[in-house]
Structure formats: structure tokens, C-alpha cells
Amino acid sequence: MGKGGSDQWNPDQYMKGAMGDLRTRPAVDLLNRVMHDGPRRAVDLGCGPGNSTRLLSARWPGAEVCGVDNSPAMLKKASAIDTGIAWQLADIADWEPVGDTDVIFANASLHWVPDHAHLFTRLARSLPSGGILAVQMPNNFAAPSHSLISEIAERPEFQAALAGRLLGDFVQPASFYHSLLRALPGQVDVWETEYLQSLTGDDPVLEWVRGTALLPVQENLSSADFQTFTELYRARLRQAYPMGDDGVTVFPFRRMFITFTAD
After folding, report:
1. Residues 6+ apart with CB under 8 A from 131
2. DSSP code of 96?
3. Residue 9 and residue 99: Cα distance in Å, rounded?
4. What predicted TM-score, i.e. pTM, was given to this entire model?
5. What tens digit of pLDDT does each residue of 74-124 get?
6. What domains can be seen in the chain, in order of their start residue?
7. How many CB atoms within 10 Å of residue 90?
8. Within 10 A of 131 (CB to CB), how many other CB atoms are there?
9. What pLDDT shows up at residue 83?
10. Measured between alpha carbons, how far is 102 from 131 in angstroms, rounded to an integer?
11. Which parts of the chain have pLDDT scores under 70?
12. Pick from 141, 110, 129: which is nearest to 258 by CA?
């Protein structure tokens, strides 16, 4: 992600506190539906700080495992732990698998990449017989956490800088991916899950989106304008996601899961 090759990703913010476990849980749920006994090579596309990549390595200790990301900061964090995993700096839009890649795993990454019709078709067709494409993407863009960003971005002081640059523009309905992949030789499965995430602390939903959905906003606004945007957003989030008497803020988060097994 990033205009002009900039790297706004902050691995520590992304995995801050309990958020790390919450961001890893969908990867575990997705991996549980990847029915491959022994891939020769498994690639984690958009590996981030390596939390999902290490799941692949633990699941298939005999496989060559590679984590791919276009963020040097994320790869630096990922590679700090010596696990025998290969790390590759590359953009998903341009990445091509080698011929023995039996599992392509993409946890919370493909929603940053445009042209899903071409992207998903290209990845699925690259698989050998029995190979599996496994994808998890946020599908929470109609929820207040994301829709409020879009609403505030329409204000005159932000509109020009943020038009067409917000997260979520590339994600299609679940039926789109089912129809697209069903047309290819193989088996497809698509489902959605809504996690009722229990967050704690001051403005926990804001802290959650600082590591993801607010990144394009920060990247395209000046520091002063981003601060103004954030304060407007903070106030709206407190109304949309009130803290309970027990100090817990419930943050429902819907995610889409897709698996395709090539014939």
C-alpha cells in the first residue's frame, strides 16, 4: 500500500495489545479450511508482521514457506524471529508464483489490491492440480467504523485529497467471488463470519483502524488536516461504539472467506 512507494505501515500499531490475537484469529479460521496434506510450497501474500506466515510454517513444517509483503517495515518485524521462513519484498499486484506453489494464502491483504476479477482469476489459474487459494478479507466497509471515514472524507476540506483513495473500494459482494471462481476448473467455497470483538481502553475502535483503514487518510492529508480528521472521526466513533459499564467496547467485524481448490 502507498502512493509513490511510501510505507505508512506500523507493525506495532497493527498488532498492539489484544488486537494481535483478534487479527490472527481469522487467519486460524481460514487455515482450518485449507485441506492440503503436504504442500511443497506455501506462500502468505501480504504477510504483514508474519503472524499468519508462522501459522503456515507450523501447519506444514516440511514445506517451503514464504511471506510476501510490499512493506519493508512489516518484513523487518516479520524477519526478526528466526523461523526458517523466506521473506520477499514484492507487490501482490505484480507477484507471480513459482510452479510448485501448492498453497496461496492471503489473510487481510487482497482488499488493498485493485481489479479483483483479474487478480483472483490469475491466482487461481496459477495453481497446480490440488493447489489451494485461501483468502480472508474484511467485509466491514458498511459499518460505522468505515462508513464514517467515507462521510467525513466528503467534507469540503478533505474531499479533493481523499476522493477515490479510501480502503474498501475494491471489495465485491461474496456472490461475485463465488461466480468468478465457479467458472474455473475446481471447487469453490465462500462464507462470511461476523466477530463480536471485545475491545478495551480509550477509543479502542480508533486504535484498531489506525493500523488499517486510516492509513490512506493519513497518507493523503497533511499532518494538520489528518489531526482534524481524526478528532472528528473520534467523536463520531464514540457515539457509534459506546463503551459498556464494564469498560468493554463491542466492535462487530464482518469478514469474508474464500477457498478455491484447483482440479
Report:
1. 36, 39, 101, 102, 103, 104, 261, 262
2. -
3. 31
4. 0.89
5. 899 999 987 799 999 999 999 999 989 999 999 999 999 999 999 999 999
6. 3-262 (3.40.50.150)
7. 14
8. 23
9. 76
10. 4
11. 1-20
12. 110
